[in-house]
């Protein structure tokens, strides 16, 4: 039977392994734009990088509202959707620091510096989202 995840459960769920998030931003015409992202949780913030001139980057600069879905597509199926507002930073030291931390999760510690250097450059943004609402359900098919 499906159940709501606790705060501790959804945090562990979205942080497990190399699960990607499906980020939804608000397009210029008001419609949704969805793209996969690498991310980390930092306290109550969702943290990720994106290019300033990407669709995501432009959308976030105009309207910071986001929703991020993380799911497990294997039975018994689980998901978490996080909602919030993005704050953007172009502070290069901060962008590179978080690009390296995020890369460690997805590419492993041995390649983190390589990816941090690649993704922590001018033109990249650090995006911090204060998580305001979470809908997280486990065991959908149990």
Q: What class, by secondary structure content?
A: alpha+beta
CATH topology annotation: Pnp Oxidase, Chain A
According to CATH, the homologous superfamily is Electron Transport, Fmn-binding Protein, Chain A
Question: From N to C, what is the helix and strand string?
Answer: EHEEEEHEEHHE
Computed over alpha carbons, the radius of gyration is: 15 Å
Task: Count every beta strand, where a strand is a DSSP E run of 2 or more residues.
Answer: 8
The total domain count is 1
Largest sheet: 8 strands, antiparallel
Flag low-confidence runs.
none
Which SSEs are present, and which pair or pack?
Layout: E1 3-4, H1 7-15, E2 21-26, E3 32-37, E4 40-42, E5 45-51, H2 55-62, E6 65-72, E7 78-89, H3 92-107, H4 109-119, E8 124-138
Antiparallel strand pairs: 1-8, 2-3, 2-6, 4-5, 5-8, 6-7, 7-8
Helix pairs in contact: 3-4
């Amino acid at each position: 039977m499906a159940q709501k995840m606790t705060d501790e459960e959804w945090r562990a769920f979205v942080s497990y392994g190399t699960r990607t998030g499906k980020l939804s931003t608000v397009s210029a015409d008001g419609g949704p734009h969805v793209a996969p992202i690498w991310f980390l949780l930092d306290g109550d913030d969702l943290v990720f990088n994106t290019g300033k001139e990407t669709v995501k980057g432009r959308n976030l600069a105009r309207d910071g509202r986001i929703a991020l879905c993380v799911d497990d597509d294997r039975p018994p199926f689980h998901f978490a959707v996080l909602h919030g507002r993005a704050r953007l930073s172009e502070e290069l030291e901060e962008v590179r620091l978080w690009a390296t931390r995020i890369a460690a999760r997805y590419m492993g510690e041995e390649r983190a510096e390589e990816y941090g250097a690649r993704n922590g450059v001018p033109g990249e943004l650090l995006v911090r989202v204060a998580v305001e609402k979470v809908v997280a359900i486990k065991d959908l098919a149990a």
